[in-house]
Design goal:
This protein has 296 residues and is of the alpha/beta class. It folds into 3 domains: 3-80, Winged helix-like DNA-binding domain superfamily/Winged helix DNA-binding domain (Arc Repressor Mutant, subunit A); 100-160 and 266-295, 3-Layer(aba) Sandwich (D-Maltodextrin-Binding Protein, domain 2); 172-265, Periplasmic binding protein-like II (D-Maltodextrin-Binding Protein, domain 2, 3-Layer(aba) Sandwich), CATH 3.40.190.10. Helix content is 45%, strand content 23%. The chain has helices at residues 3-6, 14-26, 29-35, 40-54, 70-94, 108-125, 138-146, 200-212, 225-233, 277-295; strands at 59-61, 66-68, 100-106, 129-135, 152-157, 167-179, 190-195, 216-222, 239-242, 250-253, 264-271. The strands form 3 sheets. Strands 3, 4, 5, 6, 9, 10 and 11 form a 7-stranded mixed β-sheet that branches. A hairpin with a 4-residue loop joins strand 1 (59-61) and strand 2. The chain is globular and about 65 Å long.
Length: 296
């Protein structure tokens, strides 16, 4: 019999995983210790024992910050899912009759991609909770959470590191999209389809085109991804879009076409302070959905 089969594998403790996630999200042991109401030395001891249990170094430490190792990145996804499952399990017993309204805001691309699965799963677990969904610009959604006009915001961000009052759920590639048989990218000035002011992608695309010395004009404006795709599919312009949206009759354009690399962007989650149980439950379902997406 395999040696591993004869000895029970160690069990991960939820409190330790919570501490691990707090450090990963804050990038700082001291701040994480405050989050989980422990002393910095206690937090360090928890992580030391966790690393010994898993036989892996989870964090790289220097004088200024703490970053995840590849093994730490792997554990982070599992840790979030385990904590979410723990919360859902306990809630099923302690909060079976949970009700109320949870206000969720998201940009259009994220809303179409992830919210259907979140709504389906959540309704199965908590049929008496109503989810009120708003679609809009990321910055506007986050401001509404700050002002307590929304409970949860799913947002796009170009900021490196952990965003203010939020957490990063996953990272996506931003690319230039053009029509499969189009020639808009060859025109001078370059016709570009953009979102309205306030979109994080617009400012980044404009800055990178300007830095590359590529003449361009904003040929089409729309507050929605559907509008950007329509202009691209018509062959009238190119647009900065998430790579996963470039499919069908669209193609990805890049440096070989004289266009600057747009890099990556983050998809994040912001939850209202002192959130009640229904809001926390929805937030957990959002985290689960993104964790599943990354496993695909």
């Amino acid at each position: 019999m395999n040696m591993m089969m004869r000895h029970a594998l160690p069990l991960l403790e939820m409190d330790v995983l919570k501490t691990f996630v707090a450090i990963a999200e804050t990038g700082n042991f001291t701040t994480a210790a405050e989050t989980v109401y422990r002393t910095p030395s206690a937090v360090s001891m928890q992580i030391k024992k966790l690393e010994e249990m898993l036989g892996s170094t989870l964090f790289l430490r220097d004088a200024r910050s703490v970053t995840l190792t590849p093994k730490g990145e792997m554990l982070l996804g599992f840790a979030r899912r385990l904590l979410s499952l723990n919360n859902e399990t306990v809630s099923r017993f302690l909060l079976p009759d949970m009700n109320g309204v949870v206000r969720v805001g998201a940009p259009e691309d994220v809303g179409e991609r992830i919210l259907p699965e979140v709504l389906k799963r959540f309704a199965e677990s908590y049929p008496n909770v109503t989810i009120d969904v708003s679609i809009g610009m990321s910055n506007a959604m986050r401001k509404k959470v700050d002002e307590h006009r929304l409970d949860i915001a799913i947002f796009n961000s170009l900021t490196e590191g952990t965003p203010r009052n939020g957490e990063i759920l996953m990272q996506e590639k931003l690319v230039w999209a053009g029509a499969k048989c189009g020639n808009a990218h060859l025109k001078d000035p370059l016709p570009v389809s953009m979102w309205e002011d306030g979109c994080v992608w617009r400012a980044d695309a404009v800055e990178k085109l300007s830095r590359a010395g590529r003449k361009f004009r904003i040929a089409f404006l729309s507050a929605y991804t559907t509008g950007q795709r329509a202009a691209v599919l018509a062959g009238l312009a190119i647009a900065p879009l998430p790579r996963y949206l470039v499919q069908g009759e669209m193609v990805q354009l890049g440096e070989r076409d004289g266009l600057p690399d747009l890099g990556h962007y983050n998809i994040g989650l912001q939850v209202i302070t002192d959130a009640p149980a229904p809001v926390l439950a929805v937030a957990d379902h959002v985290r689960d959905a993104f964790a599943d997406l990354q496993m695909q």
